[in-house]
Design a protein that fits this description.
The complex is a heterotrimer. Chain B is of the alpha+beta class. Chain B is built from 2 helices and 8 strands; from the N terminus they run αβββαβββββ. Chain B has a domain at 82-192: Immunoglobulin-like, CATH 2.60.40. Chain B is 18% helix and 36% strand. Chain B is elongated. Chain C is 29% helix and 22% strand. The chains are: A mainly alpha, B alpha+beta, C alpha/beta.
Chain lengths: 660, 193, 156
């Protein structure tokens, strides 16, 4: 049995569960928790504006507005909180340097404990993401436990994380053991702890933690995946520790329909094999073998199945399976070559981003959105990797910014046009304005009004009722006057006596009527003067406006034109830089992808070589007879990636239920 | 998604309102007299007595016509048969307070005079106090006024007139006058045919 | 500038507000006759009252103060007694001794013209002779409301 185990060892060593694929989404791809800022009444309109865009996941816009508001001096009340938000936004956009600067500035000021805590925390995060682990730890330790529990949870996670990255597993263990956090976070912590302990060969202790995670009750998809991972890690750790019997039931806990089921099946097979139950091992392995060859576990199963048959001395079947394996590997290698070609042609990223909503920098990019292309199948693991995700995000952001600049460029051209038009319009209007101003005899008109008013006053004072008569009345009055004058030239004529009397009567009646209407008419005249006055005032105001506008500085030589020009040149420069960096980013991602594929090729080639070797050994054996039985050669160790890796898993920054 | 800088375009206002400058209310200069031409003095060489007389007659006729026209316009609005006028001709100060008019024993008017109105009468104003219709035949009009003379002395005077209403229009003038023997304000009624 | 009825005005009855103020001429306590239309060009507050309505004792002094203050600005205040008992009414008015003219109406025309129902009724006539405000009753503090309207009308 020992011999069997020994032959297994290299397999297992190679397939050791040291790092799981980092399928869990890393910190940077998750929304920063806006609840890091306490809810408050928005005191500044501008800040509210910023938050508006923030809550719509429009971080770019938020930052833009926040910076603008700062420049315009519009965020006085919520100064510090705005700074925190800005820092957090920068952090989320991956601009660590900027973020760090902001938080450090905040800490230098005399701010409240609330602000200081958060600044330290975010600073710690910044350092961590930039890889300055010592500084990160120092910063994180400055944060008091009184902070918001969610932030505190993340703080402990980060601390444990960085310790593990430094290889300080014991410290990580201490830190995580002593900390009591929210259940979800605890699960992740325990998983990471378990993995850390495995790495330190403290399997027994690791079992306790991993088992706890492996048996937890949950309904959340994320935690279910974590549970699978834990069981997988534990199972393989036990396998490595030659505890196949214990490994099997644990591996069987992994969900059949989950993402780790293939690896689990492989592990179960190995568990059976470890117990010498090769026939039993065939069951999961044959099952596995039916699956897609893209999966590395499946690839391995192509070898483990014939291996089992060899152990069962069914050489004929073994040879068949080895042959099939070699052929299948061949096809697969060809497909990989095609994919590499495809990537080299530059289409990878565009396909990945083809479904993308291009108008915002929204965060969530799901692996499930993988486009249906040959290369994407291989790259599943790669695409989940942090490095690739970061690179992809950068590429996307660069694209976004490039489009943004394009938009601005258009606007700036429009501004230029606008300025030109305005200048032209201004030039056209000047002579008109001059003409109008010249024609406006405001003084004359005002004088007339004054005269008019004094005339009314005179009329009132003298009770000159006739002056306010209607044209008809005035005519009549004039006629009466004429008659009077005539009568006056013949004062003593008796024949005219009657007429005189009549005239007296008529003039009297006229006078009475004029007098009756006098008050009302006087008021009407005065009201007209008032209206006239109001109109004159209006005119005066407008004349002033016209004069002012007339004198105003022409536009093209002024501030606007030079600012527009300056901005345009900045846009152009940025555009160039963006294009350059985008291309380099693209190339980088391509090379990552190709590297991954090459790696897979290598593995398959190695498997292929092994298969050939084994096949040859079988032929040797059968031809040479059992007596000369060739040594049951140790299958070459498969490349390290054969089995899933176990890197510490990090949960999202916010536990699943946290909502902005 | 882009931040658009607000561009405020300053419109140069070249349209000024001159509305208020249409001074429609300016009292027009007194219109040139239309009717009632001043009688032209005939050229001296044709001046014979006969022509002078003829000329005068013509002037009078013209004047009459004008007066008549005026009279119709001023004194007799359509359909009215009877018009009563109040006037004053006093030498000494008199503050008219009220006038009451009865026709055939029925009060047809009771008018209170404000200071301004009384003043207008003093200045020669004539008030058309009543317009109405009466049957053809005999009627009696009674009118009295109240007022205050100098030294606050109160007056109340009345007058009566019986008149015949013919087919045509009739108008009566009730004049308050003190140019009478006692030099106290009295009501004089004049019947204008 | 249009404000019609206020809360204090007669809601149901036909309203004089917005219509030209019917002209009247009445004899005053001092023997002078006053005609409303002669005040065209000024803002006129007319207060219709009777001796029996209890509010007059409060209202008249308030109106007096208003008259004293705003007379120079072009406000005219007229009190019109619609009491049938002329003698008593005159006695009362003389006793109140306000600075503005009190006029006496013994005929009933003015009551109809102005749709008088409940006493006291206070109206404001603008410079053009249009009734712009009307209120019935009087409570301490109402004069502030009058003043708001008066100031507005004086500005026209």
């Amino acid at each position: 049995m020992q011999g069997v185990i020994n032959t297994l060892r290299p397999f297992l060593l190679g397939g050791l569960l040291l790092a799981m694929p980092a399928a869990a989404v890393q910190a940077k791809n998750v929304k920063p928790d806006p609840n890091g800022l306490a809810p408050h009444v928005v005191q500044d309109l501008s800040y509210g504006d910023v938050l508006f865009y923030f809550y719509q996941d429009d971080y770019f816009d938020s930052i833009t507005r926040l910076l603008a508001a700062r420049q315009l001096g519009r965020v006085p009340h919520t100064q510090e909180e705005a700074e925190l938000l800005l820092g957090g936004l920068y952090l989320s956009l991956g601009q660590h340097v900027e973020a760090g600067r902001i938080f450090e500035a905040l800490l230098k000021k005399n701010t409240s404990e609330f602000v200081r805590n958060r600044a330290w925390f975010y600073l710690g995060k910044v350092w961590y993401q930039r890889g300055y682990l010592e500084e990160s730890e120092r910063a994180l330790r400055q944060v008091s436990d009184k902070i918001d529990p969610r932030i505190n949870a993340e703080r402990y996670m980060l601390l444990a994380q960085l310790m593990m990255r430094q290889g300080r597993y014991d410290d990580a263990i201490t830190a995580l053991s002593s900390w009591k956090g929210a259940p979800d976070w605890t699960a992740y912590a325990q998983f990471n702890l378990g993995v850390a302990l495995v790495r330190r060969d403290r399997l027994q202790e690791a079992i306790a933690y991993l088992d706890r995670v492996g048996t937890m009750q949950t309904r959340s998809e994320e935690l279910l995946a974590l549970r699978d991972k834990a069981n997988l890690a534990l199972g393989f750790a036990l396998l490595q520790g030659q505890r196949a019997k214990e490994a099997k039931p644990i591996l069987q806990r992994v969900r059949l329909e989950g993402p780790y089921s293939s690896k689990a099946l492989l592990g179960v097979g190995w568990a059976d094999a470890g117990m010498g139950e090769f026939k039993r091992a065939l069951a999961p392995w044959l099952e596995l073998r039916k699956r897609s060859l893209l999966d590395s576990a499946v690839q391995e199963s192509f070898l483990t199945v014939p291996y089992a048959y060899v152990q069962l001395s069914a050489f004929g079947q073994a040879a068949e399976f080895y042959n099939t394996a070699i052929e299948s590997f061949d096809s697969e290698l060809k497909r990989i070559d095609d994919s590499i070609e495809g990537i080299r042609s530059g289409k990878l990223l565009d396909r990945l981003l083809s479904d993308d909503k291009k108008d915002t920098l929204t965060w969530y990019w799901q692996l499930s959105n993988l486009p249906d292309a040959p290369e994407s199948r291989y790259l599943y693991a790669l695409l989940a990797s942090n490095e690739f995700q970061e690179g992809l995000k950068n590429y996307r952001e660069l694209n976004f910014m490039s489009r943004n600049l394009d938009d601005w460029r258009d606007d700036v051209s429009a501004y230029d046009d606008m300025l030109d038009t305005r200048q032209e319009a201004y030039n056209r209007r000047v002579p008109k304005a001059d003409a109008v101003l010249a024609a406006t005899d405001l003084d004359g008109l005002t004088q007339k009004r004054v005269d008019f008013e004094s005339r009314i006053n005179e009329i009132e004072k003298s009770n000159d009722v006739a002056a306010l008569g209607t044209p008809q009345e005035q005519e009549t009055w004039a006629r009466l006057k004429n008659i009077e004058d005539y009568l006056a030239t013949h004062p003593n004529d008796p024949d005219l006596a009657d007429m005189r009397e009549k005239h007296r009567l008529m003039k009297g009646v006229m006078y009475w009527r004029l007098s009756e209407s006098f008050k009302a008419r006087l008021w009407n005249e005065r009201r007209s003067v008032k209206e006239l006055e109001a109109a004159l005032k209006e005119t005066q105001k407008r004349a002033v406006l016209v004069r002012q506008a007339r004198v105003g500085t022409p536009l093209t030589t002024g501030g606007y034109a030079s600012r527009v020009a300056a901005i345009r040149s900045r846009i152009d420069q940025l555009h160039e830089r963006l294009a350059d960096v985008s291309e380099r980013q693209n190339e980088f991602l391509q090379s990552l992808a190709i590297q991954e594929l090459e790696g897979q090729k290598q593995r398959i080639e190695t498997y292929q070589i092994q298969a050939r070797y084994e096949l040859a050994a079988i032929y040797d054996r059968t031809s040479n007879g059992p007596a000369n039985g060739p040594p049951k050669t140790t299958p070459a160790a498969p490349p390290p990636d054969a089995a899933p890796n176990a890197t510490p898993s990090t949960p999202p920054d916010t536990p699943p239920q946290a909502k902005p | 998604m882009n931040l658009k800088l607000p561009i405020v375009s300053v419109t140069v206002c070249a349209v000024l309102l001159f509305a208020g400058l249409a001074m429609g209310q300016t009292p027009p200069p007194a219109p040139a007299p239309a009717a009632a031409p001043a009688p032209d003095a005939p050229p001296p060489e044709l001046k014979t007595l006969d022509q002078e007389v003829q000329g005068l007659k013509k002037d009078v006729v013209d004047l009459n016509k004008d007066l008549f026209v005026l009279q119709e316009e001023l004194l007799f609005p359509a359909n009215t048969q009877v018009a009563l006028y109040i006037s004053m001709d006093v030498g000494a100060f008199f503050a008219l307070d009220s006038v009451t008019v009865k026709i055939d024993n029925k009060e047809v008017k009771n008018y209170l005079y404000t200071a301004r109105e009384a003043d207008a009468l003093l200045k020669g104003g004539v008030q058309q106090i009543y317009l109405g219709n009466l049957k053809v035949g005999k009627h009696e009009l009674v009118a009295f006024f109240t007022g205050k003379g100098p030294v606050e002395r109160g007056y109340k005077r009345g007058a009566t007139i019986n008149f015949d209403k013919g087919v045509g229009a009739k108008y009566l003038e009730l004049k308050i006058t003190d140019r009478v023997p006692k030099h106290q304000p009295e009501f004089m009624i004049k019947d204008w045919e | 500038m249009g404000f019609a009825l206020t809360a204090a005005s007669i809601a149901a009855a036909p309203s004089i507000v917005g219509k030209p103020a019917p002209d009247f001429v009445l004899r005053g306590l001092d023997g002078r006759n006053l005609r409303l239309s002669e005040f065209r060009g000024q803002v006129v507050l007319v207060n219709f009252w009777t001796r029996s309505d209890g509010n007059s004792r409060q209202q008249m002094p308030a109106l007096d103060r208003i008259n004293i203050t705003y007379q120079r600005a072009g406000l005219v205040v007229l009190g019109v007694s619609v009491d049938e008992d002329l003698r008593r009414s005159k006695e009362f008015a003389a006793a109140m001794s306000v600075s503005y003219p009190i006029l006496f109406d013994t005929g009933s025309e003015i009551g109809k013209d102005y749709f008088l129902q409940k006493m006291p009724m206070t109206i404001l006539v603008d410079r053009s002779g249009v009734v712009r405000y009307s209120a019935v009753g009087f409570r301490r503090g109402d004069e502030r409301v009058y003043l708001d309207h008066i100031r507005e009308l004086l500005r026209e």
